[in-house]
Amino acid sequence: MLKSSSGKTCKIMVVGHKGCGKTATLEQLIYGLSPAREIFATIEDIYCAQIDNDRGGKERVQFYDSAGVDSSCPEVSKAYLSHADGIVLMYAVNNKESFLLLEQLKKDIDKHKEKKELTFLVIGNKSDLNAERQVDIQSAINWATKERVRLVEVTAMDRKSADGIVLMYAVNNKESFLLLEHLKKDIDKHKEKKELTCLVIGNKSDLNAERQVDIQAAINWATKERVRLVEVTAMDRKS
């Protein structure tokens, strides 16, 4: 999660292929609006919102909704990029070109971010159009893992699809890992048929010498539960 210091506004740049649903997703998340039937190309726009943080307060966030791009010019707005704290890369699951474009956009951002640390989130939109899917979910996961970015699939048709759960354990505490299975069962029992994106984080990966949780066992469990697993250390933001 992006965290701002007191009084600071976090600035998030949203980029992606033309027609992938950037504006519709933002308006669903911020205003609860369903996508309009008639689609107009976005030139550029700014959305302001307040979001709850994990400390019981609120954070001010500005979303820069950039104009859609395509493979003929896979570049992002450098004016927005210079001010951004985070980047949302978006594609549509029913448009393979929009997914393939992400690699070019990510390279362009990495090239021009001027050594600035940016938080990335990749969103696969239009997950309700699974029958028209052109982007294999495993291919998307593999790419996101390679790029070390988080991936979620949502639909702008349903605000609830953007909700998610983060389950965390410590790699040097086996009990914390074993607890995840009980927590996951309890969540599945009470989610009332609601689809939730679930991310499992193994923290304290810097304490590998004290490891009690076998990484392969963790991967096997995450695969069985069909959730994404990453290991990080709070000692290093880059992880």
Automatic annotation (TrEMBL):
Native organism taxonomy? Eukaryota, Metazoa, Ecdysozoa, Arthropoda, Chelicerata
What keywords are annotated for this sequence in UniProt?
Answer: GTP-binding, Nucleotide-binding
Keyword GTP-binding set for record:
yes
What name does UniProt use for this protein?
NF-kappa-B inhibitor-interacting Ras-like protein 2
Q: Name one GO biological process term.
A: Ral protein signal transduction
**Organism expressing this protein natively:** Ornithodoros erraticus
Q: Which PANTHER family match?
A: NF-KAPPA-B INHIBITOR-INTERACTING RAS-LIKE PROTEIN
- Recorded family membership: Belongs to the small GTPase superfamily. Ras family. KappaB-Ras subfamily.
Tagged with keyword Cell membrane = no
Molecular function (GO) terms listed? Answer: GTP binding; GTPase activating protein binding; GTPase activity
* Record InterPro entries: KBRS, P-loop_NTPase, Small_GTP-bd, Small_GTPase
